[in-house]
Write a structure and sequence with these properties.
5-stranded antiparallel sheet, alpha+beta, 168 residues
Length: 168
């Protein structure tokens, strides 16, 4: 896979995301559109009041995957620049957890590329979200960190045992 263009900006870290800086980074005089996605922490999930979120990641792999997304965007869409930033650690209500900015000569490509970026990020980048409520915490939408190798093998063996038992 070719390297991410040097004019793209990919960030993964614990500091707050500076959205305006990312937008300025992608803006050029030849662009007619900048489309952004600002994923922010909301105060509720599935009918429960959310207190805060905590993001964990396999950081080296996550950075590699974010760069791959940027490279794919350039291959699939007529865009100029991409900026993708994702937070890790504890985030409070209202904070930005992920921000994507895409610049392009025309709006259609910028919209399509931005949508592709967030959808692909959610499916492929090893970043996991834990939601905290007054009565406990859960990993969101089944986005669990992978279990240790021993636990995965034990779980598979248990599932296989349950499946293979004859009905009484």
């Amino acid at each position: 896979m070719p390297p991410t263009p040097s004019n793209d900006l990919i960030q993964l870290g614990r500091d707050p995301i500076a959205a305006a800086v990312l937008v300025r980074h992608v803006r050029t005089d030849s662009d007619g559109a900048i489309v952004t996605f600002d994923g922010c922490v909301r105060d509720n999930s599935h009918g429960r009041r959310t207190l805060y979120l905590d993001y964990e990641s396999y950081e080296s792999m996550a950075l590699t995957k974010l760069k791959e997304i940027a490279t794919d965007i350039h291959a699939k869409f007529a865009i100029d620049r991409v900026a993708i930033a994702h937070r890790l650690g504890r985030l409070d209500i209202g904070e930005t957890s992920v921000f994507i900015a895409v610049s392009a000569p025309h709006r259609a490509a910028a919209f399509d590329a931005c949508r592709f970026a967030i959808d692909t990020l959610k499916r492929t980048v090893p970043i996991w979200k834990k939601e905290y409520f007054a009565d406990g915490a859960v990993w969101s939408d089944g986005e669990l960190p992978p279990p240790p190798p021993d636990a995965a093998a034990a779980s598979a063996a248990t599932s296989a045992t349950r499946i293979s038992k004859p009905a009484s």
